[in-house]
Amino acid sequence: MEFSAGLNAAGDGVEVEVQLAPGVLAAVDVLADVLGDDILLIQSPGCDQPLQVPLPVAVDPDTGRVRFKRATGKLIFTAAARAKVPGSPATNASSLAALRHPESSSNKMESISSSSHAELLPGAAPCTELARVEEPGAWKSPGTSSVVGTAALEPEEPTAAVVGVEVADTAVMPARASSEVPAPPPPPLPTTTTRSGSEGADSPAAVPGSCSGSAAEMGLTEGPAEDQCPLPDEGEATASGKTSLAVVHQQDSTPAADAAAAAVTPIVDGDGDDCNDLKLYHQFYCDSPSVMLPPCTALAATVMAPPPSPPTGCSQVGVKPAPAQEPVCSRSDDGGVVNAARVAAAFEPTGGTSSRDAGFSFTAPDLPSPSPLPAGLPPRAPPIDCRYLAVANGLRVSAHSYTALLADAIGVRRRGSAAAERRKADKVNEILQKVADTLDAYGYAVLDNYITDAAIKGSRAELRVMEPHYSPGMIWVGKEAETGAQISVSAVRGDVVLWLDDQALNATAFVKDGVRRQCSFLQLQQMLADVDELVFEGLRPRLSYLAGLHRRSDAMMAVYPGKGARFAKHVDNTTMDGRRLTVLTYLNPDWQEKQGGALRLFPIREGAAPVVDVLPVAGRVALFLSAEVAHEVMPAYAPRHAVTLWYFDAGEHAAALTAAKVMPGPSCKPTAQTAATALLRDLLADEASSGIHATLEGCKELGTRVAALELGAQQLLAAVLGLPSVTSLIETMQSLTPESLRMRREELRNMGLGTQHHAPDTSAHV
Ligand SMILES: O=C(O)CCC(=O)C(=O)O
Ligand SMILES: [Fe+2]
């Protein structure tokens, strides 16, 4: 194979010319066909990050020569397969291609698109660096770059070839480990922050009946087309100070509130337009973190002074993360491998037998084991023994791909000059650093437009088939990481949820009540991969607090059905269960403030940050520290869709799992859950139907009942009611007056649907 590289005539990049072997040429050619002018994503063995090659590459069909230009970086080109792509070329954002090295020595190509189909052929080629072009900054002065080495490799297989080029330019090296990046000061005061004396002051007024949960109201309408935006010219301003995307309102203008508002620094892409040209960080260094960045990034939506009477203490409640047990494989009727235990747990995480009996199962034809992920890619959600391979359009799904983001990266299709590229990379780093700094200083950060409208719409469409099968969200209480007791009280937590693990995400069909239904979660998978990337590659290296993140929970899809459903104030991880970062992605196009449903985030320490209300608008990603930031979901008056992911710290998680194994807590006992739920049900029920009356006698009876409960039930109740201990629960309950009982009941009802909307049997699962 022949190869040459050198500074191009314009002096703004290195031009590479490669003579490809016939098989490789065919692969590149076909991929170019599949991807249109998107990105070719290539993962080569020994190379940590996939390479992203903007397409089309110019292939001369007569000579087999390929030319392309790189501004900087290391290019390792591994092609080991030939793809056959019938049908029309896919040009949408879901088109993607990846080369990934499988278990052993052979290479495979995976090519996925909504309408195409690839035949995988094994190849064999090591990740070999063939040539290196080293002259840091050379393209700043044309003519000084040089090829310092060339080599050639003839692949053993005619269909496999490797070409490598490394071009160094230290000017665009991204920030790496936090130790290498001096932490900049907290975000500066935004000079153009808009403030208003009235907006965002109170919980939004209820608009009962305004949303009934139809598909249209759930926001499944077509979003606007993506802007096509040119790259900024050389001379264009790099920072506009534009704050239009960071709607920052402040209720009270006090010095403390001013300072707090100032902390919420709007982050903008800085190129003076509304375009998504910061979507991509084009990472060429295989051994560096690849960074994807949201366009038009902004911080939290509404800054408010703390509410006059903040809700009572944080409940020790959280959400049951993925179960820790290893799955047990079994075989389904139609021959597909089914991990019944895990699927049941994932789909109906109530821990109760009824849900397991009801039993979902996912089905897929037998396929060979998937290849392990290439080293260095973000860790995936819980490892599973019986992995499912999705069969979507006859193609295997790559567990990780950057392509959905890349496909939007107009900056790649219309590459600017080296200087423009460098500016872009710098800006991306700057924004990521701001996000990390904000998270570090205040415990939370919010990114807007991280997920595209198309991806939101696609994911919502994929989830629609599952929506009838969501279960009431569980409040997870107790010290047992991942195995803790769960209790469902819709007044405290009014959403319904669906847990999706890797296996479920990769399934093509599910069976419920003996009925088989098709499903596909490709878009959703991509969205999750994009969030993983933000966390693992964008933030983990920048925050020592996140340095130990090793994996995340399964994805929890949640729908607050409207009608005032909410989730009471709580902290996700109060028991050192391993969860360090909570990341929410909202899927609600056209969400209006009057629909409520804001995520209210409370400061880590009194006065340390503003209380912010973050509306669940589509594409927005909210991040906060799971063990420190109290938060609640304000009553939602329209169906509100969100995806929650929890990222685990390796050390804390391991310790929690060990602790859970050796000392299962009393709250695990089903009897405790039943007793606690029964009492809550009575407490919440209308007086007429409840055993507890707001009279002196009723109060006395309640105090006696609570004191007589088993410890586990008392612990659960204390947690749900936001009381710090069992002692305090008993004291509180024994000193109730008719008045305070009525207030407590009202308070609980106001937290959500209450029994007016939910029958007791649906609001209590034990
Ligand atoms: O949906 C949200 O905004 C937050 C949900 C939440 O707090 C949780 O599931 O723990
Ligand atoms: Fe939460």
From TrEMBL:
One of its GO terms (molecular function) is ferrous iron binding. InterPro entries: HIF_prolyl_hydroxylases, Oxoglu/Fe-dep_dioxygenase_dom, Pro_4_hyd_alph, Pro_4_hyd_alph_FE2OG_OXY. Its cofactor is L-ascorbate. Residues 104-116 have a biased composition (Low complexity). Keywords: Dioxygenase, Iron, Metal-binding, Oxidoreductase, Vitamin C. Gene3D superfamilies: q2cbj1_9rhob like domain. This is Fe2OG dioxygenase domain-containing protein. The lineage of its organism: Eukaryota, Viridiplantae, Chlorophyta, core chlorophytes, Chlorophyceae.
